[in-house]
């Protein structure tokens, strides 16, 4: 749907600062009310550069093909400005990052965190395998997960996303993403596959369990992932888990931690698929309903179930050695190439 600049100016009271929802280096997002009374979010770029135009074209092309309850919907666009503006459905409740990292000892309940993780996993499994052409999001992080009034998750920001050619397993690109969430193997090789999204999702799972900000660990000796994996291998997760999660999660936290560690394995081919992650997370919520589905999914894809670790399969020495390379990546990522 093409929307005129005049309509957007009226909808936002000439892009009044009071209508700002947020923004960053690339642009500002405004709340607007269109003439048909639809409440929308309008992304207005700050600068005229080719990269912004390319990302606009990319996002329109991708979102116009996606129809999933956990992906933000593109309502229309305005082509009258040098860099076109995108108009989305208005998601009223901020980002997962906003809710998770509030001041004070309590944040989202564990049940809500687990459900949001499952909804995000469902959307990524859809993008990777159910969309007309498979799509890699390339920037999964808590600030790109929007929440509505009932805390339903909506994956947003597809400007960096890429199609996976049907005849290929991945593609080579200039590295793009967010430090702390970025797949180390993608960082080193430039080779992008859907397993890069799975790594980023694993980091977000760790963030949900710990309420630690992945990028804030970049200046410390160990990254959040390396620290979490080491404590997991040693059986000392209580040292890093959010106390609220310890109180509310019961016996589910062990399984979620196991899934997260599988997602952030250094070698992409050793990580599960997003569909396997979705099934395993749902199995934590409703164990009896999903056990056979998980087993069937693994067997159908020829995947060894050990790709999702159990406590008996842990090896402190092996995990620590594996993450020595990631620690090197964390250090080198302070000086991006």
From TrEMBL:
Cross-referenced InterPro entries: Kinase-like_dom_sf, Prot_kinase_dom, Protein_kinase_ATP_BS, Ser-Thr/Tyr_kinase_cat_dom, Ser/Thr_kinase_AS, WAK-like
Single GO term (MF): protein serine/threonine kinase activity
Residues holding ATP: 44
Database matches in PROSITE patterns: PROTEIN_KINASE_ATP, PROTEIN_KINASE_DOM, PROTEIN_KINASE_ST
Main location: membrane
Gene3D superfamilies hit by this protein: Phosphorylase Kinase, domain 1, Transferase(Phosphotransferase) domain 1
Compartments in which it is found: Membrane
One Gene Ontology cellular component annotation held by this UniProt entry: membrane
Similarity comment: Belongs to the protein kinase superfamily.
PANTHER family: PROTEIN KINASE DOMAIN-CONTAINING PROTEIN (PTHR27005:SF328), WALL-ASSOCIATED RECEPTOR KINASE-LIKE 21 (PTHR27005)
Protein name: Protein kinase domain-containing protein
Protein source organism: Triticum aestivum
């Amino acid at each position: 749907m093409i929307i005129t600049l005049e309509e957007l100016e009226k909808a936002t009271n000439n892009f009044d600062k009071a209508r700002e929802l947020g923004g960053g280096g690339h642009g500002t997002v405004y709340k607007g009310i269109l003439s048909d009374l639809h409440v929308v979010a309008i992304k207005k770029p700050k600068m005229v550069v080719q990269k912004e135009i390319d990302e606009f074209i990319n996002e329109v092309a991708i979102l116009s093909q996606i129809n999933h309850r956990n992906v933000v919907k593109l309502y229309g666009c305005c082509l009258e400005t040098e860099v076109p503006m995108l108009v989305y459905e208005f998601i009223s409740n901020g980002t997962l990052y906003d809710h998770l990292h509030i001041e004070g000892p309590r944040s989202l309940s564990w049940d809500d965190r687990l459900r949001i993780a499952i909804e995000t996993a469902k959307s990524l499994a859809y993008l990777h395998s159910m969309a007309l052409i498979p799509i890699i999001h390339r920037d999964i992080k808590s600030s790109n997960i929007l929440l509505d009034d009932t805390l339903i998750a909506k994956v947003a920001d597809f400007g960096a996303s890429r199609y996976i050619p049907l005849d290929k397993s991945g593609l080579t690109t200039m590295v793009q993403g967010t430090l702390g969430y970025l797949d180390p193997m993608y960082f080193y090789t430039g080779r992008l596959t859907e397993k890069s999204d799975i790594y980023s999702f694993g980091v977000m799972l760790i963030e949900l369990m710990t309420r630690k900000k992945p990028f804030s660990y970049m200046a410390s000796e160990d990254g959040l992932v390396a620290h979490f994996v080491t404590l997991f291998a040693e059986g000392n997760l209580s040292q890093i888990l959010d106390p609220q999660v310890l109180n509310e999660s019961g016996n589910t936290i062990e399984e979620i931690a196991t899934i997260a560690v599988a997602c952030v394995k250094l070698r992409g081919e050793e990580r599960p698929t997003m569909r396997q992650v979705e099934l395993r997370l749902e199995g934590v919520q409703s164990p009896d309903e999903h056990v056979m589905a998980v087993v069937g999914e693994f067997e159908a894809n020829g995947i060894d179930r050990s790709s999702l670790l159990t406590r008996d399969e842990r090896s402190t020495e092996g995990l620590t050695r594996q993450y020595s390379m990631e620690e090197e990546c964390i250090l080198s990522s302070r000086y991006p190439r």
